[in-house]
């Protein structure tokens, strides 16, 4: 076997292993995780209804390979035009869950920004209800095919606040999350274009969430903004998304705070938040036994999946299969869901551990 063939074979074995591994996904945006084929179908439907002006343009934007961070946010604007119907929201939720289940994700914390739209009669509440309907549909389909998904997939929801929103809109989202707690909403996320708005606008809403016992995760340090990073660390959220661009003293501070970090390799590389995989802060986090979890961010927008992200960790940082298993297993410590579910997930990992030593 040539060395190329051997490498190819080793890669195949690794990818198969990563797919088989039970995994926890804690940073996945619903509208960033839609299949390209579904987006194209929705675009065609809108084209026939005359609700988008140029199908070829939309198609080109959807299928573009490389995107800067700002181009990503242009794409999100396009996607949001395509997903304004309740039925579409239900459909994409169901498909996204099926896709994660198909690669052995056993717990998915899906996040999405509740949106209102006067034209389609959508309110933040009806948006979330459409998402919940998608979760129910996915559960039904997956139950019917339970032999394909030995451990099943538990889905919980985080409601996101977009950095373009106002304080009042953010508070509305937190109130909605509190009302929907019994339906599987387990926390709040602050996301959106990092060069837009001021995160302090959302501090009243985030503080309110915390006072009411809702965990909070913040997108932090996707771009150079040391003052914001400083303030976010002082707020001490329950988790941090990305945390790529920090100053020396802030890395030290983070190290002491031990706030779990949601790491998204492909997203960080594609958007240029991190120059190369060798420069990725995962190396430092991992070496120092820092609490972290590997995630996808936007599996559709970045054409990735959680198994590939684990494979990237293995090949780029020389991790063994057992190291990957430990990473996946430890992620249960950082979920926002209730304790009994944590114990259920721990049992899944304990049950399969002998196969992964
Ligand atoms: C910050 C991001 C993001 O909420 O409509 N989003 N926010 N940084 C990122 N890194 C690339 N990727 C996605 O999903 C899409 C929304 O998630 C946030 C943005 O607000 C985007 O509009 P939902 O389901």
Automatic annotation (TrEMBL):
**Which cofactor(s) are needed, names only?**
Zn(2+)
> Which keywords describe this protein according to UniProt?
Hydrolase, Metal-binding, Nucleotide metabolism, Zinc
Q: Which Gene3D superfamilies match?
A: Metal-dependent hydrolases
Q: A GO molecular function for this record?
A: adenosine deaminase activity
InterPro entries from the UniProt entry? A_deaminase_dom, Ado/ade_deaminase, Metal_Hydrolase
Q: Which reaction does it catalyse?
A: N(6)-methyl-AMP + H2O + H(+) = IMP + methylamine
Q: Which domain of life is it from?
A: Eukaryota
- Cite the Adenosine deaminase domain residue spans from the record: 22-345
Q: Which GO terms describe its biological process?
A: adenosine catabolic process; inosine biosynthetic process; nucleotide metabolic process
Query: Would the keyword Metal-binding turn up in this protein's UniProt record?
Result: yes
The UniProt similarity line reads: Belongs to the metallo-dependent hydrolases superfamily. Adenosine and AMP deaminases family.
Q: What is this protein called?
A: Adenosine deaminase domain-containing protein
Q: Which organism is it from?
A: Selaginella moellendorffii
Q: Taxonomic classification, please? A: Eukaryota, Viridiplantae, Streptophyta, Embryophyta, Tracheophyta
